[in-house]
Write a structure and sequence with these properties.
The chain is α+β, with helices and mostly antiparallel strands. Helices cover about 20% and strands about 60% of the residues.
Length: about 90
């Protein structure tokens, strides 16, 4: 026969958590300021399709490269989990 101890211990923990930590989690939207910063942005290569000797050939006009751009400061809405105690 199985022991009833694990079941009793689990019920006690559930009761204790319900009494001591009376509350719940809520998701709230918060507006935060994101300061201006620099970002590296990949600029893809540029190709052109041309016909040479009745064959379609793709030639590369410019290699891809990284460009550093300034992203100005802006407001961003993020979702945050907060603990709300029950009254």
């Amino acid at each position: 026969m199985r022991s009833a101890y694990p079941l009793i211990a689990a019920l006690f923990v559930v009761f204790l958590v319900g009494v001591v930590f009376a509350g719940h989690w809520e998701v709230k939207e918060v507006k935060v300021w994101v300061a201006g910063h620099y970002e590296k942005v990949w600029v893809p290569a540029v190709y052109k399709d041309v016909i040479i000797n009745n064959r379609l050939v793709r030639i590369k006009l410019r290699n891809g490269f990284w460009r550093v751009v300034w992203v100005p400061g802006h407001w961003k809405v993020i979702k945050v989990r907060v603990w709300v105690e029950d009254d």
